[in-house]
Predict the 3D structure of the following.
Amino acid sequence: MNEVIHTDWIGNMSFDSIVDGHQISFDAEEQFGGTLHGPRPKPVVLSALAACTGMDVVSILKKKAGQVTAFRISVSGEVSEQYPKYYQKSTCSI
């Protein structure tokens, strides 16, 4: 399966993407030329990782235990010091 996402530059440091019919806006902090039009992209990557993990956990729990009442997923990412910045390590806990 191949997924393609198109992201458009809006101006300054702002970008918009359409994902499954939903618009997601991204921006940088003001100190880096942004206008807080949306969240920074790097933390959204961690959020997507948490949501993907959570969907797997809910699916497994529903098959095994039946009902899920609540749980929280925490994801942290260690960002590299050099540019381009990237997550060199991430951890997830449920």
